[in-house]
From TrEMBL:
Annotated Glucosamine/galactosamine-6-phosphate isomerase domain residues: 9-231
Organism of derivation: Mucilaginibacter gossypiicola
Protein name: Glucosamine-6-phosphate deaminase
Span covered, complete protein: 15 to 262 of 639
Signal peptide stretch: none
TM helices/strands, residue ranges: none
Length: 248
């Protein structure tokens, strides 16, 4: 399994940002769109910071970029401080020249009976654009990718899911307590992620070392959804030395 270990998360983030920039530029040169799958959370922040820098200081344009975020809490108002819409605008979209219409994030405001149709349309839209060129991922301590918690099926699509208790505890700080963390989310499925032509999973810090060991070296099982990535021919794990510290 391709695992790249960097001295620190800054160097790793710059490498991933450069990869994304190369993809955007090579698509631009061909007059094509780049279709990116994006993640939230603390892990990709350095990548977004570097992409913003490349936009401001090196003329990288996002006019030909279409994005699909992995997930959003449910229910969640886009204007809420904890929404993934707010996160993406604060960390990336507000600072680059991407077209608003090219941004796709699961909608946390839907009525329950609208969710299934929304999820199918999300999948269809990705497909009609030719699929995801690159999906970036973090990993949760449950082994989730997106919000595909333990028990998720390898062929799962975009859908409403119930968050694991550990995931809600890890999010408690953002919400001022676990009780206020939504119990549900809308997430791309493992199957959706798998269809991307390239997948990069990033992890930093000691806190992720144990789950990275399981994800990379453990038995492939729905108990640790990230282990399904071992079956992909197009995945790269990008780690800092701390997250890689338990690998043999
Ligand atoms: C976020 C997402 C999650 C996070 C994971 C790690 O869109 O899908 O899988 O990547 O929970 O979160 P951080 O990076 O905050 O440790």
């Amino acid at each position: 399994l391709p695992v790249s270990v960097y001295n620190n998360q800054h160097e790793a983030s710059v490498a991933v940002a450069n990869k994304i920039a190369d993809l955007i530029r090579s698509k631009q040169a061909k007059g094509e769109k780049a279709v990116l799958g994006l993640a939230t959370g603390v892990t990709p922040i350095g990548v977004y910071t570097e992409l913003v820098r490349l936009h401001k200081e090196a003329g990288l344009s996002f006019k030909n970029v279409i994005t699909f975020n992995l997930d959003e809490y449910y229910p969640m108002k886009p204007t809420a401080a904890q929404s993934y819409v707010t996160f993406m605008y604060d960390n990336l979209f507000s600072h680059i020249d991407i077209e608003k219409d090219n941004i796709n994030i699961p909608d946390g405001t839907l009525d329950k009976d609208e969710v299934v149709a929304f999820c199918l349309a999300y999948e269809k839209k990705i497909e009609e654009l030719g699929g995801l060129d690159l999906q970036i991922l973090g990993i949760g301590r449950t082994g989730h990718i997106g919000f595909n918690e333990p028990g998720s099926a390898p062929n799962s699509g975009t859908r409403m899911v119930t968050l694991d208790d550990l995931t809600r505890r890890d999010a408690a700080r953002d919400f001022g307590g676990k009780a206020d963390v939504p119990t549900k989310a809308i997430t791309m499925g493992i199957g959706t992620i798998f269809k991307a032509r390239e997948i990069i999973l990033m992890a930093w810090n000691k806190k992720k070392a144990q789950i990275i060991k399981k994800a990379v070296e453990g038995e492939i099982s729905g108990d640790v959804p990230a282990t399904y990535l071992q079956l992909s021919q197009h995945v790269e794990f990008v780690l800092d030395a701390d997250a890689a510290s338990e690998l043999t």
